[in-house]
Design brief:
alpha+beta
């Protein structure tokens, strides 16, 4: 079994934004999927699954699924040796899911309800839930029932969204779980800890939970009845590892979105998990959060100062992919929901918008293995980041110009495509073509910058020699 510190190296960062907290009324959820510096991801439209028996290669968890599902976007691993790890997507009903945000339960809880090594884990969650749900709330209920019956191998956070609601669910032990609805005018930024605060068992509009959780906590002297049931205090951790590894990312997010009303500083812990933004959050604001590495602070690892590696940043080399799932108002999100995807490290990549209704992703998103290959979207953006890393301080400006220019072109493309949707004879064909065009815009601009970086690098060879002009 890996240690907590080893698990943390593979941990993620998440964001959830209610519809009244976003600039355009979208419900938005997103996450950096962090694992290894080189571990390729693919991106595709998964077909509607027929009834079958699912078996996890990761834990051996088995589930009979009698229903026929619907299509969904996903970012599976480059190899299925350890399982699918579909991770994130929007389904044919316009519901989004992202799984998982790694979290950690305390030993008191695990003593009485240990994790089940053969239970459901991150590898399986999207695959057995997302194709079968019609709403975010239904997603929580389906996964909660599975966890309660079969157990889970991990403590995790799971994000769900539909056009009206965002929900955050946490598995606190082998079978116990809770979920909370994000208030429409709030956002949450979450970093590898059980974070949900007080659960109101009477407010079933805004909270869901294992029906046995109160009895479980009371019977094992983890909670006293008639006192607030603060989930993260009862089930979670708040130790030195959290102070260094987790809380600083929450501070960075709340400083970014609520600078006038939030006065938390790096080093503080036990922050509120829900906040009001000072102003409506744009989709590119969410991108900046997931790309953040504590710029303009002494803790930026790219700055190489004496405190550069004191805290774990949001965007780091271990990111496999970063996604934002945008469920927009007044559109059919089964077609027009946007799966924004940045392959590799978000700070050194481009978020490409893919419509949820596309029939398939571009060919280069189907490729990528170990070692590097030039036919892969994942490796294209990892190559960009690797070249930028050589002189990151100098490359930052070029990266920002690239990201800003492509983002503007992508927004223009989305607006043009949206205008055509209402009268399109084949909406799925229209959004497929637009998605491929969005990928091409990013691909061409990235390849141009890569070519320039390689050309410039030829001037830096240690074998350079200049003849003395006096000879």
């Amino acid at each position: 079994m890996t240690t907590r510190e080893e698990q943390m190296m593979r941990a993620c960062t998440s964001i959830l934004i209610g519809k009244d907290a976003s600039a355009d009324g979208s419900v938005i959820i997103g996450r950096n999927e962090d694992s290894k510096p080189a571990w390729p991801k693919h991106f595709q439209q998964m077909p509607a699954p027929a009834p079958y028996t699912f078996t996890s290669k990761d834990t051996g968890f088995t589930l009979d699924i009698p229903e026929t599902g619907v299509r969904y976007t996903a970012t599976p691993e480059w190899t299925d040796e350890y399982g699918v790890f579909a991770e994130d997507g929007i389904n044919g009903y316009g519901v989004a899911m992202s799984a998982t945000e790694s979290a950690y339960a305390n030993p008191r809880v695990l003593a009485y309800d240990p994790l089940n090594p053969k239970g459901i884990g991150e590898e399986a969650m999207v695959t057995v839930v997302l194709p079968y749900i019609h709403s975010a709330r239904e997603g929580v209920a389906r996964l909660g029932q599975i966890v309660a019956e079969y157990g889970t191998s991990e403590s995790n956070g799971i994000l769900f969204a539909d056009q009206q609601e965002a929900w955050y669910m946490e598995t606190g032990s082998g079978h116990q779980w809770v979920a909370a609805r994000i208030p429409d005018d709030n956002y949450a930024v979450i970093a590898n800890e059980l974070t949900i605060e007080e659960i109101d068992f009477e407010d079933t509009d805004n909270f869901m939970f294992n029906p046995t959780i109160a009895e479980f906590a009371e019977s094992h002297h983890l909670w006293t009845r008639d006192t607030p049931f603060v989930f993260r205090e009862i089930f979670g951790t708040n130790d030195e590892s959290d102070a260094i590894y987790n809380w600083p990312r929450v501070v960075a997010g709340q400083q970014m979105f609520s600078p006038n009303t939030t006065f938390y500083e790096f080093g503080e812990t036990d922050l509120p998990w829900l906040q009001h933004p000072d102003k409506p959050i744009q989709i590119d604001d969410a991108m900046r959060f997931l790309s953040n590495h504590f710029e303009q602070t002494p803790f930026d690892p790219a700055a190489n100062g004496p405190q550069a590696h004191k805290y774990r940043p949001i965007s780091l080399a271990n990111t496999q992919e970063s996604h934002l799932l945008q469920l927009r108002p007044q559109v059919d999100n089964s077609i027009a929901g946007i799966h924004w995807l940045a392959m590799g490290v978000a700070a050194e990549s481009i978020y490409v918008p893919f419509y949820a209704g596309m029939t398939d992703s571009p060919e280069d998103y189907h490729h990528g293995a170990l070692p590097y290959s030039s036919d892969s979207a994942y490796w294209r953006y990892k190559l960009l980041g690797t070249l930028a890393d050589r002189h990151f301080g100098l490359a930052k400006k070029s990266l920002k110009v690239l990201q800003d220019d492509t983002f503007a072109k992508h927004l223009r493309l989305i607006a043009q495509t949206d205008k055509q949707l209402a009268t399109a004879a084949d909406p799925r064909q229209l959004v497929t073509e637009a998605s491929h065009q969005a990928a091409a815009i990013a691909r061409e601009a990235t390849d141009k910058l890569i070519a320039q970086m390689i050309t410039d690098a030829t001037k830096e060879s240690p074998l350079r020699f200049q003849v003395d002009p006096n000879l």
